[in-house]
Amino acid sequence: MKNNNFIGTIPEMLVNMSNLEILNLGFNQLSGQVPSSIFKISSLKAIHLSSNSLLGSLPNDMCQHLPKLEGLYLSWNELSGNIPSSMGKCSNLKNLSLSYNHFMESFQEVLEI
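Structure for Leucine-rich repeat-containing N-terminal plant-type domain-containing protein, as requested:
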């Protein structure tokens, strides 16, 4: 569903898609906060939400329910706040894109490198 000029918020009903492996809503005109329910779909391997107008912060426990997550793409949005400390618990994460947002700390601070 990438690059379809979708407008509005991300629907909460996505949480009902319990077998969903790839969520790609990038390059649309989505706004509002990223629903925390997305981070509870344990089957997800990739979340692509780049190049929208998403606001707010990411949930602190975002990686707690994503054991299979390999790719998280959130660049080119209006996300802010702290990068969740639970990011280090995404043990299968291979690709991470958080650029061009308004996060308040560096990723090194989150991982305590």
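The chain has a mean pLDDT of 90.
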